[in-house]
Amino acid sequence: MRTPNDLELAKLTKRYGDTVAVNGISHLFAPASYVCLLGPSGCGKSTTLRMIAGHESVSDGNIVLEGKEISHLPPAQRGTAMMFQSYALFPHLSVRDNVAFSLKMKGVDKATRHAKANALLELVAMTHLADRMPAQLSGGQQQRVALARALITEPRVLLLDEPLSALDPFLRIRMRAELKRLQRELEITFIHVTHGQDEALALADEVVVMNNAVIEQAGPPREVWGKPRTEFVARFMGGHNVVTVDGGRYAIRSDMIRLGEGLPATATGVEYQGDRVAVTARTATDEEIVALLPEDAFFTQPIHPGDAVQLGWDARWQHPLEA
């Protein structure tokens, strides 16, 4: 059901000569939701984001925000704002002036734009560094400044192009929580491009999986991960095996595979993962199956590469895939 402040893509297409980067995708984004566009490199997710932002022209189709066609408008008039992967801060401006820059370009007086910049710096916990230059900031601090700068225009949709990719793993997890907190407080739509499945599952209200320039599947994270529609989604999201059962293709969660009576196979790899151990095995029909076993169960009766094993699972955990 449509609402007054939603974002809709209608048969959106982007061509570069004979190459189709985005192929007629249609999608309605729920208002005030956190959406992750997820997929491998070259699937079309970043091109889609740039078309929404106005940094890439549209070959065909429409972008509609709050009932208004915006694909012909320049970026500053769309009601969207984009936070770039590189942050792109001005090195010669202070943190405060970086955040206030777009208001300066609009002719807003210094006192007003600085007051608004200060409010946003407080929102991202950067008030104490307002007078510093970008070179004096850590990667995580630069990201917060870039986020505040994108938000100062009061967008209805914030677009984030792999915003966490430059951060170390520990900081990446901290910033995930910060982004989610901000999205809830601001009550605007965040559209976040990532190739990280864990990032998408942790952040998103909706995951949109793209592959080969189209949307392969979209829905709540638990649904996309737990009920993949296609073999690509099952393999890309991880945590599933794809096996042939009675001539059909099925996804079976790796944590539902048990050792014991069942399909004969040969262990080809063992990987310790802390609270669990991943055992990879290959069947006589050359299908590779991964079983995630509880750590204590595995070390009670350890398995080594080359050992003969039998893999079993409850048929209730078989999820049929589209052809």
In short:
It contains nine helices and 17 strands.
| Mass-distribution shape | globular
CATH topology of the largest domain: Rossmann fold
Q: Helices and strands, in N-to-C order? A: EEEHEEEHHHEHEHEEHHEEEEEHEE
Oligomer: single chain
Calculate the terminal CA-CA distance, rounded to whole Å: 29 Å
Task: Tell me the total number of β-strands.
Answer: 17
Structural class: alpha+beta
What is the radius of gyration computed over CA atoms, rounded to a whole number of angstroms? 23 Å
Give me the CATH superfamily of the largest domain: P-loop containing nucleotide triphosphate hydrolases
Residue share in β-strands = 25-35%
Sheet bearing the most strands, described?
6 strands, mixed
Number of domains: 2
The average pLDDT value, as a whole number, equals 93
**Poorly predicted sequence stretches spanning 5 or more consecutive residues:** none
CATH class category name of the largest domain: Alpha Beta
Q: Within the largest sheet, what's the order of strands?
A: 6-7-8-3-9-10
Question: How helical, in percent, are the residues?
Answer: 25-40%
Q: Would you kindly provide a written description of the structure presented here, covering whatever features stand out?
A:
With 323 residues, the chain is α+β, with helices and mostly antiparallel strands. It has helices at 45-53, 95-105, 110-123, 139-151, 169-186, 197-203, 221-226, 231-237, 295-300, and strands at residues 7-16, 19-29, 34-38, 60-65, 68-69, 80-83, 157-161, 189-194, 206-211, 214-219, 240-245, 248-253, 258-272, 276-283, 288-294, 308-312, 319-320. It folds into 2 domains: 7-226, 3-Layer(aba) Sandwich (Rossmann fold); 242-320, OB fold (Dihydrolipoamide Acetyltransferase, E2P) (Beta Barrel). The chain contains 9 helices and 17 strands. The strands form 4 sheets. It has a 6-stranded mixed beta sheet with strand order 6-7-8-3-9-10, with helices on both faces. A hairpin with a 2-residue loop joins β1 (7-16) and β2 (19-29). The longest helix has 18 residues, at 169-186. The protein is globular and about 75 Å long.
